[in-house]
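ARCHIVE RECORD
Type: protein–small molecule complex
Small molecule: zinc ion
Source of inputs: curated submission
Record status: active
Notes field left blank by submitter.
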Amino acid sequence: MIVIGLDCAAPRLVFERYRDAMPNLRALMERGTWGPLRSSEPPITVPAWTCMVSGRDAGELGLYGFRNRVPGETRLRMVDSSDVRLKRVWDWLGEHGQRVAPLFVPLTSPPTPVRGQMVSGFMWPGSEAPWCFPRGLEAEIVDRFGPYLADVEDFRANDLDRIYRDIVTMTAQHVDIAAHVWSEKRPDFMMMVEIGVDRFHHAFWRHIDPEHPRHEPGNPWEHLGREYYQLLDTHIGRLCGLADRHTTMLVVSDHGARAMHGGFCINEWLIRQGYLVLREPPKAPSPLDHGLVDWQRTTAWAEGGYYGRVFLNVAGREPDGTIPPAELRAVRRKLRAELENLRDDENNPVPVTVRIPEEHYRQVRGLPPDLMVYFDDLKLRAIGSIGGDQIVATQHDTGPDGCNHDWNGIFVMSGGGTPARGHIEGAEIYDVTPTILGAFGVPRPPGILGRDWSR
Ligand SMILES: [Zn+2]
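STRUCTURE (tokenized, with ligand):
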């Protein structure tokens, strides 16, 4: 089986707008099963891919974003592969005698032993840090394909021509590596994830999507959407060419993308509502400095991102907690009600979805946010920076970006004796692990989520 993961590939682009530019993918669709793939909660790369390859929800994994809470502190720490404490699909396949090759999958840095080869994904810290299992594969790849390009630098910047060149070069190198591993190592299961698609969307969405509020028709980058997706399709065709009729091809994405209309300044709002108190106001708009927070008078603070994570300052849990644990639920209920009745600066309602991790997940590990907040169904980001004069901002706080994540990714499966169901609805990210295991005839591990589409 070859799994091609296109990070952030959006159903509307793949199945509609650029469908005619993707003959290889279309051929898989016509001979197989395809449809939207509902992402994880939250629809963010790190939890999403890990949910996909484990059949577990983000609560069970204890992964709520790229960064997670450090116990006994208010700060967050970047996660890495050591934070994944449950088995992933390649572990089960290996235990059943299959040779595996997960390549560039998020949360595989540092690389971990597998029955085959592993190449770390885009969170590889670079330089001397290991990025392959076994490590001998590093020199083998560098000798053939040059220094490993794990990610594109500064993809939220203004030099778009440079960014596009870097994305195209990186994507081509990844496919070269995958083709090499498939031909030389002969794995039974290979999965590659291309982060270039996500980087492309963040850099170019405004320019390629006519529905983006700041889209300028006739801009010099408008054609790049079709061009890049066409390029992806050529790469898909190359990998399909390496497979035979016994090989199942699976093309998936971890979430989709949509036009970002701006951001909701969640910490600024918490300050105005009296939940978050600073010892002195910031001199200029800036990220929330935890050293400036008057924790003895603070009830809640938030982390921004594709969604907002609101944390309550609870006695015994946070270093200077103010809320007695017995009152946590009441404070959360009140804050939730206020969030669900949000207004922008012009007093227009802002649609908000609030989720409580303990109610949503099957199990909650680590330190989850107390409230997970989605603004206008992901049309708006959550902005954690403070000091601006607006609650709803039209700009991103970490550089230019036209795109937010969206709930649906893609699912395309073909070949290897899997059924050709044509267009399907209702596939979920959790279905991917049982489907892969099903295609290999590996028994379903107890406790995992999802449906097996291979039967
Ligand atoms: Zn992603």
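CURATOR ANNOTATION: The longest strand covers residues 408-414.
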